[in-house]
Every structure is written in C-alpha cells, then in structure tokens.
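[step 3/7] fold_predict: job queued, chain A
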Amino acid sequence: MILIPLLALAIGVALGFLARGTISPGFGVYLGVAVIAGVDSVFGGTRSVLEGKFHTDVFASGFFANIIIAFFLAWFGDRVGVDLYFAAVLVMGWRIFTNLSLIRRYLLTRYHDYREQKRQQSEHNRQRAEGESASSSLAS
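[step 4/7] structure written:
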C-alpha cells in the first residue's frame, strides 16, 4: 500500500522526462508550483498510510485541491505583481521535509521493532532447543 503513491510518483516523473514538448516560460512557474503541490500531497499520503489514517477520498481531494490552489496562488500573484508562488513553495517545501522526516522515523521504528522481534524469537527458539536437549538427556 505504501509503495503505490511512490510508484505513481516515479511513473509521473519518468513520463515527464520522456514527454516531448516545450512549456512556455510564463507557464513554467505555474506548472512547477503545481508539481510541488502534488509531491507534497504524495508524501502526506505516504505518511498517513504509515500512521494508519489513509483515506482515498481525502487523499484524492487534497491532491487536486492543493494543485489547483497552488496554481491559482501563483497565477494571482503574477496578476497583482507579487510573487506569491514563493509562499506556496516555502510552505509546501517545509511540509515535504516534515513528512519525509516523519516517514523516515516511522520506517526506522518499524525496522527496529522487526529486528527486536526477530532477536526475541531467536532467543526463544534457542532456549526451547536447550530445554528439549536437557530433557532428552535426562530421559536416556
């Protein structure tokens, strides 16, 4: 489940690199802000999967709403002469790094829990094997 958003992101990036065509320089800022909004949503969705709070409808609506709002903010800032896309990039960049940090922590915690569980299982199996060998030597 966690790999689906990351796989979709990788496919989107690959398609972006493989696509032929040019984007007008004036439209590039809007597209860049929209892409950052999409990446922010993907990492937020990945984090919610790890927390067990993922809802598809919340993710999909947030994904498209973030893209539209970021696009509109950049467009509106361009119209009024204020670079509002900086605000969107700053906020979404901060959220991306925060989500990446939390994803890393969740994955490390799960890894450490897995390692501890394996260590305890191995210890349990070793003690059981020692107990069986002691009881068989007493029986003979």
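[step 5/7] annotate
The longest helix spans residues 85-139.
The chain has four helices and no strands.
exit 0
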